[in-house]
Specification:
heterodimer, A: 531 residues, alpha+beta, 21% strand, globular, B: alpha+beta, Ubiquitin-like (UB roll), Fumarate Reductase Iron-sulfur Protein, Chain B, domain 2, two-stranded antiparallel sheet, elongated, binds flavin-adenine dinucleotide, binds iron/sulfur cluster, binds FE2/S2 (inorganic) cluster
């Protein structure tokens, strides 16, 4: 019986993967939900501040078009407007659906409340204290469990992606490694990648998880999957280094009234963002504030001491606990020193409006895909993008699966090949590569710094690289090349030598791995083409 | 700071465990057991490094804890013993298979059959949502055994999430699941009370869940 079932494979079980699985199962289709760890461990659980939707519950006349405009502007008009329109239109029903799944969003006087977030003119961010990601993921895990029980979702949650099974330019399936059984498995069927951001290219330097190593993305890249906008890396302006990673001080801290300042020579405080940008200075988009901090070149602090007891108790109790625990500072009483840290990857697998990649039978959603966020993601838009994107990818895959499975029937599947993971002797080169990337892709870059990084990178290549290291090397190179070729400043990509934003670069940066070289090109944003 | 990590290793499921010592030296006063493990050729599970994902649960100096939440400087002595959790099968070194804990939630049908009651039990739902499924509470529980019916607090918390927003249509089924997997097996030793790394107030959640699921009291709706 079981053999006759055709499965769609989802790689990654954070919010994007869960959302895709739920969508497919609800359509009566069958899913293999593959991830290196169970969903409870995914980065989606770490999200704090909230999820955006123009629910218009705060008496501010918020509208979907307001959400759309803020997102487009925040992304410096590099996102596909048709996609952002779909995202913002779906947002209210997505949040309401999560409410029905039992997510304890903060409420007052019998209705949901929303908070301010950076780059948005209205209070539009729905939240569950400052553990929104955990509450959303827990709810979606429970919902998907229902489909596991009915047999529609098959969990493979100690399985690492190795590579796609490609044949004649089409994705025939996926090769994964079972970490527990130490064996390779090949699974036929379309594939939806939901494997999260590229944190692992910058270990110890990001706010995210160690599980998103970037190796899946790297392997896709050398298998011919196109990537877009790799130069756009979000530095979050309020992070703190702790052992092994960077701790995020959620944007909600500023949304609820936190203020950024530095200490002048005479010992007085300068709230320089407010001086420069006015009352909403502390809530400028992240790219703007991180750049300002980098230019300032001094220690910046976030002052949350004016937040009311009520706010600490009802809206940010978990944030306070976390800061006390890790930094030994009570943010209710003292300012907290912060600096920019890598937080999100706007770039990733290039997808179209249906979340198709350039390879037929392969889709992508969530943080691993380049969608919705343009040159800078607004806080609260990525949980939304993961859930919505997972759903759209699943809908497209479902529509196309009938034809897919029909043609697969008389087509013998591609066979697996051995795959070598990074060897112990490559660890040093890995570490060097990371240092090179950090230098080349700092908050502000220029031709010289990027070229120096590229030159240094080229010295670490060797003939005996493992498959995994080789793939990571080429992805790293593509990130640097993308940053080099975009000779303008836009959003999170600040070029000291090209400070202006130029109309000719209102295009997406596409990185392709050819037979022996990586090619970067600039291509039209699809939705803009169509009007 | 210098510590000797004594780690109980095992090459695979079927092989014999053995102790191996590693010297770890660092200038980072806040270094945790996780920071040290990152540098060693030992298999273990990690993800968030900030006690938010439950991956790195293990037994450190005989106490079940999260490696990323165990500061080396806080541990007395020069030597630290690190062992895998004991109530789950070991896959390799410190990596264990917590499948049984998670599968139990499927047996107990932990999901909303027809949606939650939106207006009810927000604080309780929030508290219950925090469960990391790390398994530390099961490790210290005298009544939990992998093959038994009792699911421990790792089953109580997810069930409490449903109970907090108990839709009328699901009351009967939920009460049955709760009684079987939590109430009947819990000896109230509360050994788990201080262990939960998510900071769930286990006792409070238990009292509230018992009230609703066993004593059939309607949960007081919070003033919103
Ligand atoms: C500290 C923090 C706070 C945040 N706060 C917010 C917020 O308030 N609002 C907001 O909108 N966004 C926030 N974000 C961003 C948001 O959490 C993520 O962008 C989003 O959750 C991504 O979801 P995802 O499903 O794409 O990926 P993830 O949740 O990262 O899931 C990736 C999945 O892929 C699996 N995987 C990875 N590699 C492999 C492989 N090689 N093989 C198999 N499986 C693999 C993982 O196991 C995991 O299951 C925050 C991020 C961080 C780090
Ligand atoms: S209740 Fe606490 S200790 Fe038990 S599994 Fe959940 S988070 Fe871990
Ligand atoms: S790594 Fe997530 S809890 Fe320790």
């Amino acid at each position: 019986m079981a053999e006759s079932i055709s499965y769609i494979n989802i790689i990654g079980a954070g919010l994007a993967g869960l959302s895709a699985a739920k969508t497919l199962a609800e359509k009566g289709l069958y899913v293999r939900l593959v991830s290196v760890q169970p969903s409870q461990r995914a980065q989606s659980n770490l999200a704090e501040g909230g999820i955006n939707a123009s629910l218009n519950v705060m008496g501010e006349d918020d509208t979907v078009s307001g959400h759309f405009e803020d997102s487009m502007k925040g992304g410096c008009y590099l996102a596909d407007p048709v996609m952002v329109k779909g995202l913002t239109e779906a947002a209210p029903s997505i949040v309401r659906e999560f409410e029905k799944l039992g997510v304890p969003f903060n409420r007052e006087n019998g209705h949901m409340i929303q908070r301010n977030f950076g780059g948005q003119k209205k209070k539009r961010t729905a939240f569950a204290k400052s553990s929104t990601g955990k509450a959303l993921t827990t709810a979606l895990i429970d919902e998907v469990r229902k489909h596991e029980a009915s047999g529609h979702v098959l969990r493979l949650c100690h399985h690492r992606f190795e590579r796609l099974l490609l044949k004649d330019g089409r994705c025939e399936g996926v090769q994964v490694f079972d970490i527990y059984e130490k064996k390779v498995m090949c699974m036929e069927g379309p594939v939806i990648m939901c494997c999260g951001g590229l944190n692992g290219m910058f270990p110890g330097m990001t706010t995210g998880t160690t599980a998103n190593t970037g190796s899946a993305a790297a392997e896709l890249f050398i298998q011919g999957v196109e990537f877009a906008d790799l130069e756009f890396i979000q530095y979050h302006p309020t992070t703190v280094p702790i052992t092994g990673k960077r701790l995020l001080v959620t944007e909600a801290a500023r949304g609820e009234g936190g203020r950024l300042f530095y200490v002048k020579e005479d010992g007085s405080r300068c709230y320089w963002l407010e001086e420069k940008f006015g009352v909403r200075g502390n809530l400028m988009p992240r790219d703007v504030i991180s750049r300002e901090e980098d230019i300032l070149g001094r220690q910046v602090y976030i002052d949350m001491t004016a937040l009311s007891d009520e706010t600490w108790k009802k809206k940010l109790p978990d944030l306070r606990e976390e800061i006390i625990h890790y930094l030994g500072i009570d943010p209710k009483k003292e300012p907290v020193p912060v600096s920019p840290g890598i937080h999100y990857f706007m770039g990733g697998i290039r997808v179209d409006e249906g979340h198709r990649t350039n390879i037929s039978g392969l889709y992508a959603a969530g943080e691993c895909a380049c969608a919705y966020h343009g040159a800078n993601r607004l806080g609260g838009n990525s949980l939304l993008g993961a859930v919505y994107g997972g759903r759209v990818a699943a809908e497209t895959a479902a529509d196309e699966s009938y034809r897919y499975f029909e043609s697969a029937a008389d087509n013998p599947p591609a066979l697996f090949r051995t795959f070598e993971s990074i060897s112990a002797s490559e660890k040093e080169a890995e570490a060097r590569m990371e240092r090179i990337l950090v230098k080349g892709l700092s908050v502000r870059r220029n031709e010289e710094s990027i070229k120096a990084a590229l030159n240094e990178l080229h010295t670490i290549i060797s003939a005996e690289m493992s498959d995994e290291f080789e793939a990571r090397y080429y992805l790293a190179e593509a990130m640097l090349l993308s940053a080099l070729e975009r000779r303008e400043s836009r959003g999170a990509h600040t070029r000291l030598d090209w400070p202006e934003t130029k109309d000719e670069y209102k295009k997406i940066t596409v990185a392709r791995r050819g037979a022996d070289k990586t090619v970067i090109s600039f291509e039209k944003i699809t939705g803009q083409e169509n009007g | 700071m210098k510590k000797t990590l004594r780690i109980l290793r095992r090459a695979s499921k079927d092989s014999e465990p053995y102790w191996q010592e590693f010297e770890y030296e660092t200038a980072d006063g806040s270094a945790t057991v996780a920071t040290a493990l990152m540098t060693l050729p030992v298999t273990w599970e990690h993800s968030c490094l900030q006690k938010k994902c439950g991956a790195c649960a293990m037994v450190i100096n005989k106490v079940p804890r999260l490696a990323c939440d165990t500061c080396l400087a806080d541990l007395k002595g020069d030597s630290v013993t690190v062992e895998p959790l004991r109530k789950f099968p070991v896959i390799e070194d410190l990596l264990v298979d917590r499948k049984d804990m998670m599968d139990r939630l499927e047996e107990l049908r932990v999901w909303f059959a027809n949606g939650a009651d939106v207006s009810r039990g927000r604080e309780m739902a929030f508290e219950a949502s925090k469960c990391l499924q790390c398994g530390l509470c099961l490790e210290v529980c005298p009544n939990f055994h992998a093959e038994g019916k009792f699911g421990g607090m790792a089953a109580m918390a997810p069930l409490a999430r449903l109970i907090s927003k108990m839709p009328d249509a699901q009351v009967k089924e939920l009460r049955r699941s709760y009684k079987k997997a939590v109430y009947d097996g819990c000896g109230k030793s509360l050994a788990c009370r201080d262990i939960c790394p998510a900071g769930i107030n286990i006792e409070d959640l238990l009292v509230r869940s018992n009230a609703a699921a066993i004593w059939k009291r309607r949960l007081r709706d919070e003033e919103e």
